[in-house]
Design brief:
By secondary structure, the chain is mainly alpha-helical. It has helices at residues 3-21, 25-36, 41-60, 68-77. The chain is globular, with a radius of gyration of 12 Å.
């Protein structure tokens, strides 16, 4: 398995855990909004995963702490791609 595939699987696992634990609740709210607007399960999880990836990048590459406010702000922007 290539590194990108491993990373994608790990990000989707984070999304799965957030949905199952309802933590943060905004993840499930966003998931429900996306699926109600015609996106399937995989598409919805993948979009949420983009928000997770932004946070992981900031933590790993920039050495910044997890920013819950930015994460939630990016979730609320979906289905537009998060850029912050």
């Amino acid at each position: 398995m290539k590194n990108n595939e491993i990373l994608r699987e790990q990000i989707l696992e984070i999304v799965k855990n957030q949905l199952e634990n309802n933590d943060p609740p905004e993840t499930k709210i966003t998931y429900n909004k996306l699926t109600m607007n015609g996106y399937n399960d995989f598409q919805s999880r993948q979009m949420i995963g983009q928000c997770v990836a932004i946070e992981l990048f900031e933590i790993i590459k920039m050495g910044k702490p997890f920013d819950n406010d930015r994460y939630i702000k990016n979730l609320k922007k979906l289905p537009k791609e998060p850029f912050e």
